[in-house]
UniProtKB/TrEMBL annotation:
It comes from Allopusillimonas soli. This is 7,8-dihydroneopterin aldolase. One of its GO terms (cellular component) is cytoplasm. The keyword Transcription does not apply. It catalyses: 7,8-dihydroneopterin = 6-hydroxymethyl-7,8-dihydropterin + glycolaldehyde. Its EC number is 4.1.2.25. One of its GO terms (biological process) is tetrahydrofolate biosynthetic process. InterPro entries: Dihydroneopterin_aldolase (IPR006156), FolB_dom (IPR006157), GTP-CH-I_C/QueF (IPR043133).
Length: 120
């Protein structure tokens, strides 16, 4: 079966994440890079969004999962996002999520975690 890759590059949002005192008091910026390999089950019909995976829904799921509650660790947040995507989007065969904190250190552009998983 063929696949199509949907990707997001530096989706920016503010989230409540971290274990340090200042992280517990305020949101901080996150960037999400994501790739989704999706089963292609029918030809694309340019007049019918139902013939493709609507990436607005993927974006909504990622943003919602990252902003719904405080999370202590980026590792936990990545695992939650991956689990949600695989549970809600059966056409997704493989997902790779990279979540980074661009403001964590002054001497680098960002620090983050990446998780890659195949659907079962």
């Amino acid at each position: 079966m063929s696949t199509r890759r949907v990707f997001f590059s530096q989706l920016a949002l503010d989230a409540r994440i971290g274990i340090l005192e200042h992280e517990l008091r305020a949101t901080q910026p996150l960037h999400i890079d994501a790739e989704f390999d999706v089963d292609v089950t029918e030809p694309v019909n340019d007049q019918n969004i139902q013939t493709v995976l609507d990436y607005r829904q993927l974006r909504h799921a990622m943003v919602d999962e990252c902003t719904r509650a405080h999370v202590n660790l980026l590792e936990t947040l990545c695992e939650r996002v991956v689990a949600r995507i695989l549970a809600e989007f059966p056409a997704v065969r493989q997902v790779k999520i990279r979540i980074s904190k661009p403001s964590a250190f002054s001497d680098c552009a960002a620090v983050g975690i990446e998780v890659q998983r195949n659907a079962s």
